[in-house]
Amino acid sequence: MKRGIILILILLSFLSLNCQDQRGLIIFGLANELKNENWKDAKIGFGLQAIVSEAFSETGKFINLEEKSEIKEQIKKITQQIWENKTSVNFQEEGKKISPEIEFFAYGRVFYYGTPQTKASFGVFHSETTETIIKVEIVLQNRKTQKKVKAKGTGVAKTTANSVVFTVREDVVVFDETTVGKATQEAVSKAVKKIMKKYRKIK
């Protein structure tokens, strides 16, 4: 019994220390550098922001602050502004204005989208495979020191049937139902993993 209580206390202590080490983070969003009509919708930018937010959250090192009700609308406006590349955004100043809790912020760009096709025939059978490739770059910056690390990630997904580029449900882009979405998730995940290997440099 005593041994069980000791183990529980050790676990709670570990979890408490882990939570204390978490830093406040805001995901501003990604800029759309693609010359493709299918990518213009601002909802895609919001969906990408959510993917980046989830990827950083899964590291266990950050508390994502953009979901807080008092700053959610402010972030949404900036995310759309970044995605549409209408005007430049001073991330340092925006972070300072939004919340003193922000210790880090992340932003980036989608800079490549390609769909090379391959064909194969086996007697009367014919198939055409479309490979979707997405490339992103993500930056993580320390608000106080302004030090930053950045990394690129490439995602690849394949399909042997024609499919839509994005699925929209209830006014939200659903990324995990299309090859483009899956490739994007992979690209973001790879970039964030690379960043976390260098995180100590700006912590």
Describe the structure.
The chain has 203 residues and is of the alpha/beta class. The chain has one domain: ABC-type transport auxiliary lipoprotein component (Rossmann fold), CATH 3.40.50.10610. It is built from 5 helices and 8 strands, in the order αβαβααββββββα. Strands 1, 2, 3, 4, 5 and 6 form a 6-stranded mixed β-sheet that branches. A two-stranded antiparallel sheet has the order 7-8. Residues 6-19 and 120-126 have low confidence and may be disordered.
Number of strands: 8
Mean pLDDT: 81
Amino-to-carboxy terminus distance: 40 Å
CATH fold descriptor: Rossmann fold
What is the architecture at the second tier of CATH?
A: 3-Layer(aba) Sandwich
H/E series: HEHEHHEEEEEEH
Domain module tally: 1
What summary fits the major beta sheet?
6 strands, mixed
Q: Give the fraction of residues assigned to helices.
A: 25-40%
Task: Outline the fold blueprint.
Layout: H1 2-20, E1 23-32, H2 42-57, E2 62-64, H3 69-84, H4 91-98, E3 104-114, E4 117-122, E5 125-142, E6 148-159, E7 167-169, E8 172-174, H5 179-197
Parallel strand pairs: 1-2, 1-3
Antiparallel strand pairs: 3-5, 4-5, 5-6, 7-8
